[in-house]
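Changelog entry

Holo records now carry the ligand SMILES as an explicit input line rather than a separate metadata file. Below, a converted record for adenosine-5'-triphosphate, shown in the new format.
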Amino acid sequence: MKDTNLTESIDAMTPQKISARHVNVHYGETHAIKDVSVDIAANTVTAFIGPSGCGKSTFLRCLNRMNDTIDTCRVTGDIRIDDEDIYDRKVDPVQLRAKIGMVFQKPNPFPKSIHDNVAYGPKIHGLARNKAEMDDIVEDALKRAALWSEVNDRLDAPGTGLSGGQQQRLCIARAIATAPEVLLMDEPCSALDPIATAQIEELIDNLRQSYSVVIVTHSMQQAARVSQKTAFFHMGSLVEFGETDRIFTAPEDPRTESYITGRIG
Ligand SMILES: Nc1ncnc2c1ncn2[C@@H]1O[C@H](COP(=O)(O)OP(=O)(O)OP(=O)(O)O)[C@@H](O)[C@H]1O
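Structure line, unchanged by the conversion:
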């Protein structure tokens, strides 16, 4: 993996939120992630890009132990959030996923009201002592997800009745409501139209003031628009990682260059 000295000196000044070292992932006999080491900075949007099947989603799911739910999946290596080993036996994956929220490709609101979708996580984790506190959490999360003004007069309506873009912002509000420190987004705009995509991209830019955001995207334009750091994966390996501007203007590895110029993937 390559990077410039300039980027390394910037890295040294930016606090790291997540540190992954020598991560390997197998699904049965398939070696999906090969010895990946990377640091994810705080208050930064980091994009994972690369051709289909290169392991972007698999690596993303390692960061909040979502792969634990797949029987054939085996993860080795060291992943730390704020220097805490997230694969330590003492760590409860449910608590971990409150701290490291996730938003999926297809908006997937629960078949509940808008209010109850957002209140679901805080309720499970006992974050509100009474209804007034819960209502405050719901309002704050919907505001941070830039949805409040569109839904505040119909909080009891079903979440599934919203438009696709609104549903995705509802899912972001649901993830934010448990006060996470990191937000993982797996192609969050792939099911959305261009206007809804632009709204989510603007939201992602605002979210990084409060969270570390990691986004998997097939769109290089999107990676260039929303991220400050980009990681290029190819066949399970992390080929290149660095400042997004540099990756897109002066990639160091020929595989990165081929991908961003459309010759592979
Ligand atoms: N649940 C699973 N069981 C077995 N193999 C899997 C599973 N999920 C992913 N894989 C395999 O792991 C490799 C990496 O897949 P992954 O979905 O992480 O790639 P990706 O870069 O996110 O792809 P895409 O861009 O198409 O979503 C692929 O070879 C894929 O077939």
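Spot-checked after migration. The chain has a mean pLDDT of 93. The pocket of adenosine-5'-triphosphate is lined by residues 27, 30, 32, 50, 52-58, 70, 72 (CB under 6 Å).
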